[in-house]
Design goal:
mainly beta; SH3 type barrels; three-stranded antiparallel sheet; 0% helix; mRNA processing; Spp2-like
Length: 92
């Protein structure tokens, strides 16, 4: 997902590089990238828009323990509530 157009519509870049606009949530599958970057953004719920990092993944439950912003405590959030974040961090 490249961008959110509205709370229920987004722009996605396909594997061949094309941009597809106006996709609805029902047509997407939730994935939390495993790799070097563990930065995520909360996209649903009271924490929507906050950026943080994954402390622990719990794939068997479809959840991740996430530390958002400057909070020292982690929150257990469903994968559907977070997305991989590639934007700038506030401390850079």
């Amino acid at each position: 997902v490249e961008d959110l157009l509205s709370p229920d519509s987004c722009v996605r870049r396909s594997d061949d590089g094309r941009l597809v606009e106006g996709l609805r949530e029902a047509s997407l599958e939730t994935m939390v990238i495993l790799g070097d970057s563990d930065r995520v953004m909360a996209v649903l719920g009271e924490h929507a828009g906050k950026v943080g990092r994954i402390l622990e993944r719990r794939p068997e439950r479809g959840r991740a323990l996430v530390q958002l912003g400057g909070d020292s405590q982690g929150l257990l959030l469903p994968y559907d509530s977070i997305c991989h974040y590639l934007g700038r961090s506030e401390d850079h």
